[in-house]
Amino acid sequence: MSPLRAKAPRSREKRLDTLGAWFGPVSIASKEFASDEIAQRIRTFAQSSNDDLLYALRILSGIRNSVTIIHGPRGCAAAGLYHTATGSNTRWVVTNLDERDTIMGADGKLRKSILALYYRYHPSVVFIVGNPVIAINNDDIQSVVEELHEELELPIVPVYVTGFSSQNAVSGYDTALHSLLKYLSGNNASTKKNETINLLSVAEHPLDRKEALNLLALIGLELNIIPDDSTIELFRSAVAAKASIPLCPDASEYLGLILQEKYGVPLIKVSRPVGVKGTGRWLKSIAAFLGKESVTEELHTRKAAETARQLGDFSLKGIKVYISLSSANAFSVLELVEELGGEVNGLTITHLDRLHIPYLDELTTRSPSLQIHVSDGQAFEEVSILRKLSPDLYLGDSTHLGQVARLGIPVISLESFALVGYSGVVRLVRCIKTALANGSYELSLAKVSSPYHEAWFRRSHNWHIKREVK
Amino acid sequence: MAHHLEASRNSCALHGALQLFEAIDGVVPVIHSTSGCGVQHYLGVTRLSGGNDTFGSPPVSSSNIKQKHVVFGGGSRLREQLKNTVKVVQGDLYAIVTGCSTEMVGDDIPAMAKEGRDQEWPVIYTNTPGFGGDVHHGYHLAVKALIEQLPDIVKSQEKIPSGLINIWGIIPNQDPFWRGNLQEVGRLLEGIGLVPNLLLGSGQNVASWQRVPGALLNLVISPWGEFPARLLEERYATPSITFEGVPVGTAASILLRRLTEQLELDPIRTEAFITREELRLNQQFARLVDTYYRAGFQREFALVGESAQVIGIGEFLVKSFGLLPRTLVITDNPSESIREALDSRLTTILPGYHTDVLFSEDKSEIADVVRAGEPGIILGSSLEHCLALELGVPFLALSFPLFDRIVLERAYAGYRGAAVLLEDLGSAMIAGSKYINEAS
Ligand code: SF4
Questions:
Q1: Residue from the list B55, B61, B131 with its beta carbon closest to the beta carbon of A73
Q2: CB contact under 8 A, A400 and B132
Q3: How far from A442 is each of A404, A435, B124, B407, CA to CA, in Å?
Q4: pTM score over 0.90
C-alpha cells in the first residue's frame, strides 16, 4: 500500500519513539534508545509550545503563488500574520469559524472562500489547513477539496494537522510534506530520471539555502530545492531526481523517506552542513554518491583553509557554551563549538528519537555525563538548568531568550541565523566575539526579578517530567 | 455568517484575554488548551506590536492538552496544571483562560476554578474560545472576569483615594502605543486634580484592580471601554464619561472640560492647566511651519487603525494640522450601532470634503480602498507599508500589527502625544519626499 494513502502520516512518536520531555545524562539516553521499549513522558506542569499546525504553516509559507486557507477560528491564523511580517510567499486566509459553525459544520463556508480566492488571485495551488476545531468536529474537508479540484482544475491540498494528536510539533512537517507529495508529485515513480539533485530545505534561512546551493554548484550539481521557496512544479520534478540530500536530517526526514520509498529517489543520509568538519562531511557524502570525490576534496581543503584564515587565532577555549535548538541542529552546533575549542556543558533539544541514536552513542563515548534536556518551550526547566550550570554563552532559538539573558548569560539568537557552510562558521564567530565582548545589557536585564518561585529552583530539573501511564 | 479574512489583525478571544492579563503585574494566565494557542499569541500578536513583548512572559503556563484529553476530557489535566502553576510561577492572581478545544470538549472550568479557591489559591477564570470572537471580545471577557470575580477572592482593606478615575478601552498591544497613551491620559487627569487608575502597564497590579469599585468615575476612551463601564454602573452605580477615541491634541482640552463640569472640579485650575499645555503645543506647531510649507505637508491621507485611533489621530490631523482625510479604515469590528455613529461622524469630519470610511479587517479589501483614494501619505499598520511603496507615498506605521518600529514609552495621546505624532509624521514626510526626489 502506498505510504501516501492515509490522510496524514503516523506521528513521530509512533514511527520513531519520539520524546518531547526528558532530562538526564547522554549515556542514559543512549541506553534507553538501545532498548525496544521507550516510555513516553509527559509533563505535569507545562508552558505553551509549538504544535503540528505551527510547523505545517512554516512549510506552507514557503510555497510560491499559493493561497493558504486555515479552515478554522480566527486565532489559528495569528502565526500567518507573523509569517506575513517576516516575508512569506503564501497569502494567509482564515475562514473565521464562529460558534455556530462549530455546531453546524462549515464546508459551505470553505467552498465559498476557495472560490472567491481562486477568482481573485488565480493561485497555482490552494492549501486547506486543519486545526483543533476542524479535527474535533471531524469536518468534511475532503469532499470540498475533491469537488472544487475538478471544477476549477486547481490543485487543492488539504493538510490534516490537529494541534493535539502528536506530542511533537515536528510531526507537522511530516503532515504538510505528506500532503504536498500526495497532491503535487503524482502517483507514480518517474520512469525518466533527470540530472538534478533534490536539496531538501525545510524552514531554513534563505542564506543557508544560498550557501548550500553555491557549494553544490561548485562541484557541478544542478538542484531542485523543495519545499522552501519552491513551486508546485518543483514537487513534480522532485520525483525524477537522481537523489535527495537534506539540509537538516530531522526536519526533512519524512520527505526524504517517501521520495525514496515511494518514488525511488535515493536519500543521502548525512547530518547538517554546519561547522567546517560538518560541511566537509556533507559535501563528501554527496560526492561519494555521484563519484565526484576529487573535486569535492579539493573544494573542502580550499574552503577550510580560507575559513581558518578568516577566523585567525579565535578560540573558544575555556568558554562553556549551552545550546538550545531543534535536535539535529543542536548536535551539529555542538560539533561546531567543539571545533572552535569550546566546551558544551549542556543541551536543550526540541525532541529526541531514534534518528538521534548515532549522536547519542558517539557523545556517550566522549562525554557520557553531558546533560540532555528535551523540551520545546519549557523555559522554567531551562532557566533552572542554566542557573545550575552557569554557562558563559547561550546559543539558542527559543522564544524565551529574554528569560535566559536575565540570568546574566550572554545570548546569541539562532532563530533566524544563517549557520550553514563555511560562511556560517565565520558569521557565528563574529557574533560570538561581539556577544562576549560586552555583557552590559545582560547585567541591566538581571535587575528584574524572576517569574518563578525560588522553591522551584530547589526541585530537580525533571520534577514535572513523568512516565506516561497508558 | 462571518466572511473569510485575509491577514486578519484581530486574532482571537483567547489572545485578547492574554493581552489584558499579561499587562497586569502579578497576574499569571493559565491557558487550558492545545499547546500552540499560546505560541500563536506570542508570534502573531505580542511579537507584532513593536517591542511590546511582555518581559520574560513567553512561554506561558499552558495545559497543552493532547488526544486523550480531547477524547476523555481535560479537567484533571487542568487541575494538575493549576496546582503546579501556583507552585512554580510567582503570582498574586492566577487566571484560567480556555481555547477552542477545551470548550468543545466541554471541560467544567468554573468547577476547576472553585476547587482552586477552596485550596485558598487566588484563581479566576474566563471561557475564551477563539470561535467565540476576536481580541476585543477577549478583552471584554477578561475585564468581566476581573470585575466579577476579584472581589470574592482578595479582600482589600486599602483606602480608596478620592477622585479616582478608571480608564477603559485601551487594549494592550492591539494599540501598540498603549503604555504611553495610558500614561499621558493619566498625566492629563492629574493635571486637573484627579487620580488616574491606569489598570494596565508597569506598576499596575491586582491592587489597582481592587480599587476599581471605589472609583469616582469610569472614563471610556474607545468603544471597547463601554462594556466595562456598563458592568460597573450595574454593580456599583459608578457613573461614566464616554470619549470615543484617544484624545489627541486639543481634543484633550474638550475631555478635561467635560470632566471638570461633570465632577464639579475647580474650573480655574483646569483652565490654567489647559492654557499651559496648549501654549506648548502651539509653539510646536509654530516651530514646524517652515518645513510644513516647504516640504508640502498638507495633503490627503489614508488612515488605517482601530476606531479609537482613527477618531483621535484622524480628527487631530484634520482639525489642527490642515490635512485632508481621504480614506479612513476602521479595523476593530465595532458593533452595528457604533458603526453608524462613527460613519456619520467621520464621513463629514471635514465640512465640504468627502471622506471614504470603510470598516474592514481584510488586508486586500483595505488595500483596494486605500489605493482607490490615491492618498498623499498612508498612516496604518505595517501591513500597509508595501501599499505605500507601491503608490510611492510616505508611510507612518502606527497601528497593529506594528513590526517595523519599536514602541516602548511613546504616546500619541494628549498634548505631548500630539507633538510626538507631528515629529513622526513630519519625519516620514521628509524621508518620503527625499525618496521621491531621488527616484524621479
Ligand atoms: S482560535 Fe482557538 S484554537 Fe486557535 S489559537 Fe485561538 S483559542 Fe486556540
A1: B131
A2: no
A3: 9, 10, 35, 21
A4: yes
